[in-house]
Amino acid sequence: MPEGHTIHRLARDVADRFAGHPLDASSPQGKFADGAALLDGAALTATEAHGKHLFLGFGPLGWVHIHLGLYGTLRFGEGPPPAPVGQVRLRLATRPGAHPEGPLRYAELRGPTRCELLAEPEKQAISDRLGPDPLRPASDPEAAWARISRSRTSIAALLMDQKIVAGVGNVYRAEVLFRHGIDPYRAGRDLTRAEWEAIWSDLVTLMTDGVRKNRIDTVRDEHTPEAMGRPPRVDDHGGEVYVYRRATQPCLVCGSPVATAELAARNLFWCPTCQRS
After folding, report:
1. Pairing between β-strand 114-118 and β-strand 88-94 as defined by DSSP bridges
2. 108 flagged as catalytic
3. Three-class DSSP category at 75
4. pLDDT of 35-66, one tens digit each?
5. Which of the following is catalytic: 52, 89, 110, 246?
6. Among this protein's residues, is 2 annotated catalytic?
7. C-beta of residue 2 within 8 angstroms of C-beta of residue 66
8. E-assigned strand segments in 27-142
9. N or C: which end of the chain has fewer CB within 10 A?
10. Annotation says 60 is catalytic
11. Is the pTM above the cut of 0.70?
12. Distance (Å) of CA 76 to CA 30, 188, 243
């Protein structure tokens, strides 16, 4: 599932391509036909991301709420839109002559968990259910700390709970705990406030970098392939990481084998030496 940095990057990319221009909207698959019919000819007025939720604003018509889930994609193209291939839930395309400073552009949404047209109160209700997002400037980490500091649940599980921290997924969860030497099974209430503040600050930095690069890199300068004389990581998720999907491989810091286990139906990765309880 895409993590929060991907959704914020998509919000920015959609705005860059389509904001302020009347758009052709359609649902070739048919599952969003009524919503697309209402949006057809309307201009995109705003984009917003909160955690793993993407919102596309169309003024008084409301917001398209998108959650990509495990299989959803939102991809862009230039030129006249080709005939749709496969299950396209929503297609947005600029109109000829309406975007004089650039070529025709289109976007296709496939396989999302959610694609729905919402009024402002419904959109706000979704945001109200989510925890603070490290990529939203107004987010207050105190709201997350209030719940973490009272919880017997492991910090690894708490970081993946979108009601507590929005946007953190399996990669950032594993990596930020490694970077701060925290055992993923430690209960939230056993974290110190200083540890939580360091985790939050690091998430803000790492995820902001993820938006800029459109990939996840978490290793410090002294552990890059160039600094260590090692081959770059080869993985379909991209990016240089310490423990994520590196089970049984040597830790980049201490050389111990990276461990893995299942936690709340997701694979957890950590270094038992660097992240002692």
Report:
1. unpaired
2. no
3. strand
4. 999 999 999 999 999 999 999 999 999 999 99
5. 52
6. yes
7. no
8. 46-50, 53-57, 63-67, 73-78, 88-94, 105-110, 114-118
9. C
10. no
11. yes
12. 20, 40, 32
